[in-house]
Protein: Alpha-galactosidase
Amino acid sequence: MKMRLRANFILAIVVNLWMVHTVASLSNIGISYGRHANSRFLLDNGVSRTPPMGWNSWNHFWCGINESVVMSTADALVSTGLASLGYKYVNLDDCWAESERDENGKLRGKASTFPSGIKALADYVHARGLKLGIYANAGELITSSMTIAIMMVQEIERDILLWATHCRKLNGQFTSLYVNGTTEFLQRNCIFLRGQEDPAKWAGAYGHSWRTTGDINDTFARSIAFHLCIHLHPNFMATIESFTFLLFFSVTWIADLNNRWGRYAGPGRWNDPDMLEVGNGGMTMDEYRSHFSIWSLMKDPLLIGCDLRSISNRTLRILGNKEVIEVNQDSLGVQGRKLRSKDGLEVWAGPLSDNRVVVVLWNRSELRDLITAHKYVSMNKRDRLTASVAPHACKMYVLTPLQS
Ligand SMILES: *[C@@H]1O[C@H](CO)[C@@H](O)[C@H](O)[C@H]1NC(C)=O
Ligand SMILES: *[C@@H]1O[C@H](CO)[C@@H](O)[C@H](O)[C@H]1NC(C)=O
Ligand SMILES: *[C@@H]1O[C@H](CO)[C@@H](O)[C@H](O)[C@H]1NC(C)=O
Ligand SMILES: *[C@@H]1O[C@H](CO)[C@@H](O)[C@H](O)[C@H]1NC(C)=O
Ligand SMILES: *[C@@H]1O[C@H](CO)[C@@H](O)[C@H](O)[C@H]1NC(C)=O
Structure:
């Protein structure tokens, strides 16, 4: 009797595994379309084979950065153990630069906030085994606060190359001009391209990661007012999403937008739904765990966006979860996708190396009143993989095939 039960159990797991694996593989890699899409990626140079990991100044500090914040953040990456888990990039976002060039027409760090200069900062960061990343805008128009207008890619390269920075976040918010100027040197580095016109479709030939959405906001779901608008105007979503770069997006919304581009991701080319908000205080711990888990499953860059100098132990446990990081850094590099969504209960999954599968059961139930409560999420009709998931929380499983 015992034996029989066990045999049934194993059979059910194998069937489950096969189903999830098939669905995940098909939906991610895509039989013909995926191959076609992937063949257009030219930038196969060994860089960024797994999604980049590190810290970026924007989500917490906005323009309030200076060299002491960046240096102590580099120290904190090391002392918290996050650096040894793979968080290697220390990325300066907007507002590091002086608005005018120096007498030789070159870019330079803001004298009031980076008095020692960017080269000294790079040396400091490198001495800790980390890499310095830097933000630039290649558009004709200024962006939020960066006042260097009309900056071309060649200039960016010439100037920041001097400081031996490793990672570029290139903003092409108001133009696609920069595409033509991108050079081989820039391609060899970790570049974040941002622009409209669906960068997932073309940016893989020029960089290793590209933004797929507008800016993230430290919030879980869209507001009730938003849902009301969607309800009243069927075209509301389509209209609003065409203004992606003018909006702030919640975690659930951004996850869905990024999910559309799953088939374009792979080793060396990653969709970027914007940096992590974990630890910034706008969401609950369960919501931050979901945020981190889904970003990891989608093979998104893991760029911490909180103040690491005062990180809480609870936040550290989320960002430092080794098993979840391993899912993100898996060598297969296939973006996991949403497979099923019903009444706010969602199943996300994707294939991993060694025929393993990662599954996330996510309870989004944004509008408690409008959904019928479900007790279980199940992978198939037999209800074999079931879980009770707290509101806005998720559970992640890595399924490993049984050895024969
Ligand atoms: C550096 O920035 C931090 C965070 O914005 C701020 O608290 C601190 O006072 C600044 N330090 C200097 C010297 O400006
Ligand atoms: C790149 O340059 C070519 C020729 O100079 C031009 O036709 C094309 O529109 C440019 N592409 C972009 C994306 O600006
Ligand atoms: C953005 O997040 C903050 C903090 O959670 C919240 O107060 C604000 O309402 C959110 N804004 C939008 C547009 O969702
Ligand atoms: C955080 O964890 C460290 C190491 O386990 C411990 O020494 C410290 O007291 C904890 N801090 C808080 C606020 O619980
Ligand atoms: C999801 O959260 C809702 C409350 O928002 C709860 O009623 C439901 O039971 C939860 N679902 C699962 C599968 O635990």
Summary: Residues 2-29 form the longest helix (28 residues). The chain has two domains: 2-36+340-399, 47-332. The chain has 14 helices and 14 strands. The chain has a mean pLDDT of 74.
